[in-house]
Amino acid sequence: MPFLGQDWRSPGWRWVKTEDGWKRCEPFSPALEDGNSQLNDISHAVIITGDDEHEEIFSTEDCEFAAKKRKKDHFRNNTDSQCFYREKWIYVHKESTRERHGYCTLGEAFNRLDFSSAIQDIRRFNYVVKLLQLIAKSQLTSLSGAAQKNYFNILDKIVRKVMEDQYNPRLIKDLLQDLSSTLCILIRGVGKSVLVGNINIWICRLETILLWQQQLKNLQMNKQVNNGLTLSDLPLHMLNNILYRFSDGWDIITLGQVTPTLYMLSEDRQLWKKLCQYHFAEKQFCRHLILSEKGHIDWKLMYFALQKYYPIKEQYGDTLHFCRHCSILFWKDTGHPCTASDPNTCLMPVSPQHFIDLFKF
Length: 361
Hints:
By secondary structure, the chain is α+β, with helices and mostly antiparallel strands. It has 15 helices and eight strands.
């Protein structure tokens, strides 16, 4: 296969192994060159180990293996001087060509689309968490070693973010519950052969998940001190308008627990009726009618009953997009090098389930 690069005489890209997988860095980085010179000096030194009774001196040739290992550890831990992907898109292809390899993996997509940074964006946080939750339910057995590493690294950053700023802990609790339940079934019930990698590694990961669940269970919400305008100071019509903007019933219930006024507004029958009509069809209502003591339809109970039988509509602040012309997956605000005459007509929003389906082979 011919080498395709900016210059055919170029030695190619330089790759560095990090905790998130293999990353590409600039061929000539002053910080890395300084690190190389310091590490090269180690290979010419003499290492002395032992105690008062026994002392062993290794020659220069015996130090080569230790020096190489220290270089690897240095590059693995020194991420400040590395220059990684600037483009946040990935070419999704399922067929082999003379120019490209036959497939791209889920782990590669995690790397290229920069999910580690995406969780810091409040618009993308729910999208990434939902994606990880779907993988936990159905794709754990198909994850490669690199994909597993990226998956749990991103999960660790999500947990740390929730612990620091207390943002949407309910969402991550549901994710960890699904992940722990799936792992328990795969490890204890199905057997060892279904999971890629050493079974002891998966047991350690399960213990880490249980530790995260305990930390989130003990999470105390910090009470914010604000002398300015608060939510309670808003007029009733504005508070009611805020409640009508929610698409998740649990968010309505949570907000209703803040003040008695919000609780009264959150119990409005018309509010829950609109929510049911948004997520479910009229035929689904007729199959699961729930009446109150007064003979009226209890729309609040209807919502949670229908949720058990039918999927609700997903709503995210920002999602990945797929260009049908270029077969490229990307974040919309970062863009991609599209060659179509009218790129906007080729874009298609990608749901978390659609993202997983793109990488099924």
